[in-house]
Amino acid sequence: MKMKRKNIVLIGCLSILLMAACTNVDEVVYDRYPAEDFYGTPEGADIALASVYAEIPGEFVRNNASGVGYAGADNGWYDMNCMASDEQVIPHRNTGDWQQDFARLHKHEWLPTDFIINNTWNWLYKSIFNANLAVSLLEDSRADEAKIAEARVLRAFFYYLLIDDFGDVPFYTENTITVDQIPQASRKEVFDFIVKELTENVELLSGTKGGNFYGRFNKWAGYMLLAKVYLNAEVYTGEAKWAECLEACLKVSEGGFNLHPAITDANLPLGNTYYELFGDVLPDDETILAIYATLDVLSRNIYTNRSLAGSHAQALFGYSGWNGTIVPKDFYLKYDDNDIRKQQYLVGEQPGGVNYTLDVQSIDSPGAAPQAGVRNIKFYPVTPRTGGGASNDFPIYRYADALLMMAECHVRLGNSAAAKPFVDAIRERAGLAALTTNPTLEDIYNERGFELNWEGHRRQDMIRFGTFLEPNEFRGASSDYRKIFPIPTSALDANPGLQQNPGYEN
Questions:
Q1: CATH top class, domain 1-62+111-204
Q2: Where are the domains of the chain?
Q3: What is the pTM of this model?
Q4: pLDDT tens across 276-308, in order?
């Protein structure tokens, strides 16, 4: 077992210890070790942080359909954001399989009562509660300033996800207020808070890569988060921050990252080392922040299992697939046949007597035929793996994204020639020729789709580039209010002071 994997297991175990301490106080005698002393120690500070980090993969549940976590499982933040984009959807099948929530997301017909939206909201606010607690414990105990900074950056990360999805949101930084009294802040107010927290704390984070910081916010992950916030500033506040985004990306570049090599290797499941970026223990030459997963221990990764049909997965892995997620035809057809990134998609005859069709007639009523739709094996299952998922780690941020952000900023700032080397580097790694002209915004938008599909970025990109509301093969054009999700009905019921987002009032 590699050392960095052991270190992350330790972090996961620390979070379990912390949760156990909260529910079984007889086992911990706090009056012999005052909290202000304990959380000021390196071990205590790590336990306080671990309770927050545990929220990113989500607590392990053997049949996790509760939407807990950033990515890896069902019915949460990942599904809400990815299914609403053009890159994937789980269709209702005409055999009666799969609920229609995913199809409603893809058709932009979601409701404030939808449980995926409610799951995401609850997860984010639970995470913020834990982050507030960690900040308080670490500050009160005068812990190392890097640990306090890490807790504050984590809190900023969760608030960033909240304003990206929901706009104006309840905002609090101390756990001394009841839910019904939490005030609602504007998207811009929370944006300003996030930027302030990041600019004041990122430089205090560790510069260490890998090891204890595989899966944790070090300085480079902190600057990557800041860059993502600035990248979407115009959406959040009406004021673009392209120069600031570029500056943050240049800080990320100081971390010594490179594009992971793409080398043909017939011994690998997808035939190329590029796909090591989505396997087990993600390569730290390109990976900036990852979710650690080990099936039945900490988190899981369901995405290939959920895509493949039952008998197909049975033929490949010895267990049945879920026959769920598909890639819409229009998204798949944009890829060049020579692009190594197209190898993640499966259409036509497959082992197990399966034949995936390119065309899908319906995703809701009456639904798709059982073998309709292109499938995706980007996260080709690594061991340990079962029918419930696999142990693939998940990349939250990687350097390819930073390069494409720099390219976008240069073009938006009127210097497309400076953007070309960044786009060409991504294309050439994928086996494609360099662009013959300087890149346009459309070139960068397409390249982001090719490179970052199924990694949680597409909805955000579509909104920023103005394509999110455009019609697709399953729906007409969407109304402008669909660019943010509704505040869940349960949250409105719990806090009468909240105002529902426009368009969702009835």
A1: mainly alpha
A2: 1-62+111-204, 64-104+293-392
A3: 0.93
A4: 999 999 999 999 999 999 888 878 999 999 999
